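ok trying this again, last paste got cut off
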Amino acid sequence: MSFIRSKKRFIFIIGIILIIILGFMLTLPKTSSKSKTNKIPKSISVNTLQNIQKRNKINILTHNNSTSYFVYKGQPMGFHYDLVKAFAKSKDWDFEIIVEEDLQKALEMLNDGKGDLVAMDITHTRTREKTIQFTESIGFNRQVLVQRKKYSRKKSDTADYIKTVMDLENKQIYVQKGTIFINNLKHLQDMSATDFDIVIDTIHTMEELVLMVANGQINYTACDERIAKANATYDSKIDYSMCLSTQQRLAWAIPKGADSLLYEINLWLKEFKKTRKYAILNSKYYKTKKKSFYTDQEFLPLRGGGISPYDDIIKKYAKELDWDWRLLAAVINQESRFNAEANSWAGANGLMQLMPAAAKKFGLEDPFNPEENIKAGVKYLKYLLGKFDEPEISKTEQIKFALASYNVGMGHIIDARKLAQKNNQNPNQWTQSVDTFIILKSNPKYYNDPDVKYGYCHGKETYAYVEKIFAFYANYVNVVN
């Protein structure tokens, strides 16, 4: 009997143990590959620095826009581009730019090993810390309301100037689709009990909405302060003084676990941010006016007088282009306002504002010598004219294509001609055809087109450049023989 009781006791104990094990297994989280829960991207990052050192190159993921990376007069530039270039140089590394407009996709590419560093304005948040590592801050940002300045408006501009959230009552604020501004504005509506319309724009980018405000097409948009600040250097009518959020930390992103790379970047950033070069970069992209370096007033000579101190030199070299000398004078006026010592924010010099690469190519040794500068500039213009010397293009249109290329680089103009042809417009006509597509090259729909090689372009500036030169020329024809 005792044996039977012992056997029953043993079976009972085994049963209890099995129940406990089964209960524990049931409480474990499910690990199905089909789970709909948010998964943290895999980290390939522990060897990131070693991989960079092995290939002697760092792969950079960034945006193609006016603050991160763009091409101007054939030269790559941008705040983040210049920072990355300086960092890579300090390590004696090469670097490769990989453009990805979608931030989430860029971060996924980072964690998939398709890039080593995401170099663009990324807001540092606790949520994002779960999947990526942030570097030392590269700046700070706030969400702002963009409107036209209160003073120096046209008399016909009746839009209210907004000082507080309550002033937004019954107003319309345009925001780019998919941005964080929508939720923030809804929060402001709730907290201030203010009723305003949030218009979600599915077509235009943040930068395009800012320009639409400046042009009077819309009255208000919400925007990152850094984007507003950068675009205000192109258009002085922009006001972005009203804040819509608290200050936010901006940083670059690296893969989770890439502690050695994080150490190297942070060590460099902490020291570089103390330098004069860093201050110059901030000023170059966020403060320096790019619309004009001297004055926005048009230079109109007195009837019968001269145009500039360099008229004789201009007349001499205009003959090489077979141009009316007053047209060449209009180009020089637009470029430098006849200031032979002019230096641009992009690194161009002298009367005709030649970039260093062009100056070297066309034999300019002293960019501040008026005659040498004009001579080299004319050689460059002649070279560009030859690129558009086609029977289908009229002489006037050839000049416009050459001028546009002189302003922003021939690559962007080639892209715009391709877009014109692709959209059933005349690729051999600048006016009301190709000029439309140079403007549209600031829109992702167009600069991401597979036929476009040179990416983002602040094309509105190039369009205005050609228009202003011909406007100056018309004035000179009216008043100067």
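PB: full thing came through this time. Residues 26-45, 292-303 have pLDDT under 50 and may be disordered.
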